[in-house]
Amino acid sequence: SFPSTVRLFEMSARDGLQNEPGDFIATPIKIELIERLADAGLTHIEAASFVSPKWVPQMADAHDVLSGIQRRPGVTFAALTPNLKGLEGAIAAKADEVAVFSAASEAFTQKNINCSIAESLERFIPVIETARQNGIRVRGYVSTVMGCPYQGEVSPSAVAKVAQQLIEMGCYEVSLGDTIGVGTPLKAKRMLEAVTQHVPIDKLAAHFHDTYGQAVANLYAVLEEGIQVIDASVAGLGGCPYAKGASGNVATEDVLYLLEGLGIETGIDLQKLINTGFWITQQLKRNNGSKVALAKGAC
Ligand code: HMG
Ligand code: MG
């Protein structure tokens, strides 16, 4: 049955901008995006990633972005931290929460973070321990949960294994990433069923990209299974630099419209969110990837 409330985790400032080609997006634009999202009622916002600027140039100003945000009670500003160096950066910039990220596919893990799945988990042990000592919660990501751009099929049991390990290591929640958006609803259900044999549903989030236009349908399928946390990106911005052809996360506006239709509470103002999506796509000179935003328009 459907949950009565859903927590949205906003990805646009990180997943949405990390892959943006062309000019470096100025720090004040990133900060303004994040503040507009918080104004719209989002309580969980991934703001940046502390990764190698050689690998992901758009995130080079992670420190300045996190330090520049006007903090507000009740809003969590998070950052990706693949290793201890990243965590140190996140602590210095006063991130409220951090995230480690691995994948269910070996090939993808190599391309994305230059190590094996097992090595990535080894690396996360001191990250999670140090974060805990600093009172910072750690989220975990498993990428390529419904397919990999390099190896193709990914088995649900491989996803379950990495998700279980991340929880056992101390992540409070694991977000299941359909990195290249190849999933379909039945596949999403089967994948989630495999994972929930090892991890309770209230410790899982759905992080679906919309490359094949299936993300809203896939979310409906996992909501039916009881998923209560959804990652999304305003205007459908984004994609992973190490997943060729991957388009953005499902648009937050589209998810909110779906949830409102199901009578599920989020506390977010749809019109403010739509306005933010139009504002940022104008800044980036990009099309708005949210169908709901295009239908309703800015005002
Ligand atoms: P490496 O080259 O194996 O690491 O990269 P290294 O330890 O040998 O370091 C190499 C250089 O990077 C050194 O600098 C380090 O200081 C520096 P140099 O001596 O050459 O000048 N370095 C760092 N700099 C800043 N921050 C750091 C850091 N660590 C090392 N934390 C590394 C390993 C993980 C760093 C690299 O592979 C990397 O940065 N990868 C980027 C991964 C990434 O950001 N991917 C996109 C996000 S994941 C995603 O989008 C999927 C998700 O959305 C879910 C889904 O959709 O599935 C989450
Ligand atoms: Mg992603």
From TrEMBL:
Protein name in the entry: hydroxymethylglutaryl-CoA lyase
List the catalytic activities from the record. (3S)-3-hydroxy-3-methylglutaryl-CoA = acetoacetate + acetyl-CoA
Family annotation (Pfam families): HMGL-like (PF00682)
Q: Which family, according to the similarity comment?
A: Belongs to the HMG-CoA lyase family.
NCBIfam families attached to this UniProt entry: PRK05692.1
Q: Which GO biological process annotations does it have?
A: ketone body biosynthetic process; L-leucine catabolic process
Molecular function (Gene Ontology), one example: metal ion binding
Protein keywords: Lyase, Metal-binding
What EC number(s) does its UniProt record assign?
A: 4.1.3.4
CDD domains per the UniProt record, alphabetical: DRE_TIM_HMGL
Q: Which enzyme class?
A: lyase
Q: Which InterPro entries match?
A: Aldolase_TIM, HMG_CoA_lyase_AS, HMGL, PYR_CT
- Pathway given in the UniProt record: Metabolic intermediate metabolism; (S)-3-hydroxy-3-methylglutaryl-CoA degradation; acetoacetate from (S)-3-hydroxy-3-methylglutaryl-CoA: step 1/1
Species, as recorded: Nitrincola nitratireducens
PANTHER family documented for this protein: HYDROXYMETHYLGLUTARYL-COA LYASE (PTHR42738:SF7)
Ranges for domain Pyruvate carboxyltransferase: 6-274
